[in-house]
From TrEMBL:
It comes from Synoicihabitans lomoniglobus. Keywords: Signal. GO terms for molecular function: carboxylic ester hydrolase activity. Residues 431-507 form the Immunoglobulin domain. Pfam families: AXE1, Ig_3. Residues 1-21 form the signal peptide. InterPro entries: AB_hydrolase_fold (IPR029058), AXE1_dom (IPR008391), CE7 (IPR039069), Ig-like_dom_sf (IPR036179), Ig-like_fold (IPR013783), Ig_sub (IPR003599). This is Acetylxylan esterase. GO terms for biological process: polysaccharide metabolic process. The active site is at S289 (nucleophile), D372 (charge relay system), H401 (charge relay system). The keyword Signal applies.
Length: 782
């Protein structure tokens, strides 16, 4: 039930949040990113300068910025204190520390943290007629001529032409703004700058400074008012007809003030796209807060927008109160104290930025401050997670609504540089052809770089594949209809490029095996020396031909830093006797063609370096291990892959494992597996229990996260014994039945899960960025 809170929202965006937060108190999270996992302990370090003068310090922690979950007196030692909390579910925590300073003045400061941000989801459903409503309004707008009136003005910069502009919208409404462009040149990339909340004058420099960089710039007022006038002029509007403008008409979607604002944004983008001096290629929209709201909405309404940049964008998650969190400004539920709340909230659904995400095809940059109580970060996350194209989220752990946005600005400028230069992504690894039998599952993948953010859309025979918007696409249960040509279009802020075509070819059908099978496993990890080399173990049920790869230098094409440059691959049997070895997969010219053919059949990407190592061997049933080390005791990140080549009896892996050094950042361990049909698997991440086997320097607290092919989190575990008793006992029984060694520590992690056919990724990291030797295991439940 929606909380019927009736506290009126003041003009929060006009208040300097930073001015309310004294510099005598500083709060920092122990994880510099401010991001945590469910159940993980969150610690804030509080430092007070001149602590002796701070009286009665207290703290309050709220979840979602709404409900208090902890509070109390703050005890300082030498001006310092540590505050701890945690969340078992995805969400946002806001910490406030308050006290009384010199002169009896109130002093406060804030700290923030977010838990499993990718799983903070919308609180309500998108209206069924949302697209029909907005398509209807755009059709209505299309009947109104733009009627652009440009009035030349005086530029404040040499080499830049300046004008004011008015454009017609619906009825008597207009868009008013300022236009700037370089004085020389024929065509330019276009930049639409939309404004934060309030009623105020535009500044010439907001447009001319960007024009001096080479942009065709239109900077618009959010209201139908003169773009540049005196402060007194705008103050009179703010006190009069535009007072609380965000509430105007908010009981009906046809009268809401935001209807005019959104259509005005579309008209402004339309005007730029129709100018003869537009380059016909780049149209970027950018803004902050209410401007961020407008930028993202414009990308959802106008198909020619090529990128949207939203700094702490307002307007999302308007039903957030139903999920126990504060919505983004204008917080429609708090604007209904004298109105019908149900009507207001129904209207809000048509203007909630979250609901525009599904319409957006352009790359989107968003920034979120973990101290922001005007546009709470949880509201930004709800929209970001629904975007299916290229996107980037800058989480700012020390930022409120206005201050400490430096991390976002740095990324913003790189996006603008890429867009202005038309810097297209570069495909470094093309999709490979695959041959499959009816009923099997296969996948195509691509690797690309040279961009801040990348988006993907896969096509089969020229038709877009619905939902295929990741770097890989799987085809489950292959039929004759799936055979054909597959390509992917990769998009970035600077443009788009299409891959070469990869064919899916049907092979003759064979008898199905006697149950589900693991098709292959790959593990990316840091390869050290001694006990920290990479080791992949696997068990074969019957004689099988396997392809084993130790990939190092080719990983640079996938933007993996610190790749192992000369991997050495060795294969051992269950008695630890070496069976085979390879260093440099092209070292045997006679076997090269056979390896290439096998990789194409199995859908393995082609190595870009001759120094990667590959073995293809036929093995009897039994236990095996593949070791990857660096030639000359070198170290680096590497990929260990084991593929089973299907035959008439089916695939033959019973379980697979990889032991490796689990680092931080790009050096966490990543295990990929492919299932050819729906299967139940047990996935384990062992760390502390490895000590019983003589492994030194173990990972003390492994965090196991399972992702699907699109990078969406499916399941996560942090400490298998921390599950409810029934789940813990069921998991222990399943592990025992599979013959897996018993965990001696409650901090090892494990999952048992039933998955449909397709590719999956299990990531093993150390809690709180710890590192050490770990083991990832995958068992097939039959």
């Amino acid at each position: 039930m929606l909380r019927r809170l009736v506290t009126p929202c003041l003009a929060l965006l006009l208040v300097s949040v930073g001015a309310l937060r004294a510099q005598t108190i500083s709060i920092t999270p122990d994880d510099a990113s401010g991001t945590y996992e469910p159940g993980e302990v969150i610690r804030w370090e509080v430092t007070v300068t001149n602590a002796a003068s701070l009286a009665r310090p207290t703290y309050t922690i709220k979840t979602g910025g709404l409900d208090t979950v902890a509070s109390g007196d703050l005890s300082l030692t030498d001006g310092r204190a540590t505050i701890e909390s945690s969340l078992d579910t995805p969400g946002w925590l806001l910490l406030e520390v308050t006290g009384t300073g010199s002169g009896n003045a109130a002093v406060n400061a804030f700290g923030g943290a977010v838990v499993a941000l990718e799983n903070i989801v919308r609180a309500d459903e998108r209206p069924a007629d949302f697209d029909a409503f907005w398509d209807g309004k755009l059709a209505e707008l299309a009947t109104v001529p733009i009627n652009a009136v440009e009035t030349p003005g005086t530029s404040d910069r040499a080499g830049v032409d300046y004008s004011t502009v008015t454009l017609d919208v619906l009825g008597d409404d207009q868009v008013q703004g300022q236009l700037a462009r370089p004085s020389t040149g024929d065509t330019f990339p276009a930049l639409l700058i939309v404004q934060w909340a309030g009623v105020y004058s535009l500044q010439k420099s907001w447009a001319t400074s960007r024009a001096a960089q080479g942009w065709l710039v239109l900077n618009t007022q959010a209201h139908d008012v003169t773009p540049i006038e005196s402060d007194a002029f705008y103050q009179a509007l703010n006190d009069g007809e535009l007072s609380g403008y965000w509430r105007i008409g908010n009981e009906d979607r046809e009268t809401s003030y935001f209807l005019r604002m959104y259509l005005a944004c579309h008209r402004a983008a339309e005007y730029l796209a129709n100018r003869p001096d537009w380059d016909g290629r780049t149209l970027v929209v950018m803004g902050a807060s209410q401007g961020g709201l407008q930028a993202i909405v414009t990308a959802g309404l106008h198909p020619q927008v090529t990128a949207a940049l939203g700094e702490v964008p307002a307007g999302s998650d308007q039903a957030g109160l139903e999920a126990g969190r504060v919505p983004g400004w204008p917080q429609w539920a708090w604007q209904a104290w004298d109105r019908d709340l149900d009507k207001v909230m129904e209207t809000a659904r048509y203007f909630d930025v979250t609901n525009f995400a599904a319409r957006i095809k352009a790359p989107v940059l968003m920034g979120a401050g973990l101290l922001d109580d005007v546009v709470p970060p949880s509201s930004v996350f709800t929209t970001h997670e629904l975007l299916t194209g290229a996107k980037q989220l800058v989480v700012m752990p020390l930022a409120d609504h206005q201050d400490n946005h430096g991390p976002y600005y740095a990324v913003q400028e790189r996006w603008l540089d890429d867009a202005k230069a038309g810097r297209e992504p570069v495909i470094t690894v093309q999709p490979q052809p695959v041959t499959a039998r009816t009923g099997e599952s296969v996948f195509f993948s691509v690797a690309a770089g040279q961009a801040e953010a990348l988006g993907y859309q896969w096509f089969k025979d020229g038709e877009a594949i619905g939902g295929a918007t990741g770097s890989a696409v799987s085809v489950a249960g292959v039929t004759a209809a799936d055979a054909g040509s597959y390509v992917v279009r990769v998009t970035s802020p600077g443009g788009a490029v299409t891959s070469t075509a990869a064919a899916l070819t049907l092979a003759p059908s064979v008898e199905a095996g006697d149950g589900p099978h693991l098709a292959n496993i790959s593990t990316r990890c840091y390869v050290g020396t001694g006990s920290a080399i990479g080791v992949a173990g696997f068990v074969l049920e019957r004689e099988t031909t396997v392809l084993i790869r130790g990939i190092g230098p080719s990983l640079t094409a996938f933007q993996v830093d610190g790749a192992l440059q000369r991997p050495v691959l060795r294969l051992f049997d269950g008695d630890r006797e070496q069976i085979a070895e390879n260093q440099g997969w092209k070292s045997d010219p006679a076997a090269e063609a056979e390896l290439v053919a096998a990789m194409q059949r199995l859908g393995a990407f082609a190595p870009s370096s001759d120094d990667d190592s590959i073995l293809r061997v036929t093995l009897p049933a039994g236990l095996y291990s593949a070791q990857v080390s660096g030639a000359g005791s070198t170290t680096g990140n590497a990929l260990i892959e084991v593929y089973a080549e299907p035959d008439d009896a089916g695939d033959d892996f019973l379980n697979l494992s990889s032991r490796c050094y689990v680092g931080t950042g790009a050096s966490v361990a990543v295990a990929g597996l492919v299932l050819r049909e729906e299967s139940t698997v047990v996935i384990r991440a062992a760390g502390p229990s490895l000590g019983a086997f003589g492994v030194e320097g173990t990972l003390r607290k492994p965090l196991l996260t399972l992702y699907d092919r699109d990078g969406v989190v499916i399941a996560r575990n942090f400490g298998w014994a921390h599950n409810p008793m029934a789940a813990k006992n069921a998991l222990a029984e399943q592990m025992h039945r599979m013959g897996a060694f018993a965990f001696s520590s409650p901090d090892d992690s494990a999952l048992v899960i039933t998955l449909p056919a397709g590719p999956y990724t299990a990531e093993i990291a150390g809690v709180n960025a710890t590192a050490g030797n770990g083991l990832v295991e995958i068992y097939l439940v039959r």
